[in-house]
Amino acid sequence: MSTKLAPLSLAATLLAGTAMADVPSVAVDIAPVHSLVARVMAGVGEPNLILPAGASPHEYSLRPSDASALQEADIVVWMGSDLTPWMEDAIATLATDAQVTTLLEAEETTLLDFREGALFETHDHDDDDHDDHDDHGGDHDDHGAEEAAADGHHDDDHGHAEDAKADDHDDHGHEDHADAEQGHDDHDHGDHDPHAWLAPSNASAWLNLIAAKLSAADPDNAGAYFANAAAGQAELERLAEDVRTLLAPVESGSFIVFHDAYQYFETDFDVTAAGAISLGDAAEPSPARITEIQARVQETGVTCILSEPQYNANLVSTVLDGTEAGTGVIDPLGVTMELGPELYPQLIRNMATTLANCG
Questions:
Q1: Which of 256, 239, 230 is nearest to 355 (CA)?
Q2: Contact 119, 275 (CB under 8 A)
């Protein structure tokens, strides 16, 4: 009996290998996006991650394997040049035949403006201001190209003029912005906060977008892609319910973050940080900013200060000095986590758990 089945098993293996060979090669920029793409591709294929764990999204030099992944890519899914400015030229040079999906430019994405100042006092956090993200529509009027990609067309010409002004977006961490908490001049051009993956509502919308892009390139597996996306969306709905329950006791404004990357998470779950130690993840805060944060901690009952695994822990210790606030480590990029479909939901859950248990 077993000897008769062996040839069939070999044939099935060979057919599976052929099917896998036809699956699109997909390159993504950061681990949370890799996780979402991996969820949609589950059982069909796996995406390639360009930015390794621990590397800064703002500054990175491609390894040969990264360059090869881009050259071989049929599809590139990335956040955009506001987060990874170095990748725009790499895509334009290396991924010349790939269909490119820029999530920060997708119509499905809800965008938030940068908050201003160490204590966010000049930022109106009214959700109604962001639901339509009308600035996004004005800056990127080629969204029809995104829809065309569902028919198999290229959805990105690699030459975004609107992104050119953001190529050096990480200059919000440069020394000449030591006083940025007074005017936030580096965001006068109107760019949005690029940390949009930290809103599970965005991630849920992206699952369908990713499934559409993959299905256009690989119609034979379209059913699997959309089924995976639907299952992923159901998982995120359950996750959001759990996180809201977990965060219910957390008082709004009772925590300080290391850098202002979390307003998408805050908006989805109705919690609000009281301030940020650093202006951005590429920035060193000025002494004046640290003093301002220390005063907020000491005067307003902040109970938690959140650090990040790849950044200067001494700054957190400085802010904590003389206070009774607790501290925790929050990891917005999944630096310490295993790659795969489970990374994204676990990243969101870990953030909520850390916040709920801090202080």
A1: 256
A2: yes
pLDDT band at 121 (very low <50, low <70, confident <90, very high): low
Phi and psi based region of residue 260 (left: phi greater than 0; alpha: psi -120 to 50; beta: remaining): beta
User: What is the token pair recorded at 44?
Assistant: 């069909």
Nearest Cα neighbor of 141 from 187, 169, 105 is: 105
CA separation, residue 334 to residues 268, 318, 326, 343, 346 (Å): 19, 25, 22, 7, 9
Total-model pTM: 0.74
Residue 27 half-sphere exposure, CB side, CA atoms within 13 Å? Answer: 24
pLDDT at residue 252 is higher than 80: no
Most distant pair of Cα atoms in the chain: their distance: 79
Of the candidates 268, 277, 271, 344, which has an alpha carbon nearest to the alpha carbon of residue 311?
277
Contacts by 57-64, CB closer than 8 A, 24 or more apart? 57/29, 57/30, 57/83, 57/84, 57/281, 57/333, 58/83, 58/84, 58/85, 58/86, 58/169, 58/170, 58/173, 58/281, 58/282, 59/86, 59/170, 59/282, 60/84, 60/86, 60/87, 61/86, 62/90
Q: Which two tokens stand for residue 357?
A: 């248990």
E-strand ranges in 198-274 read 255-259
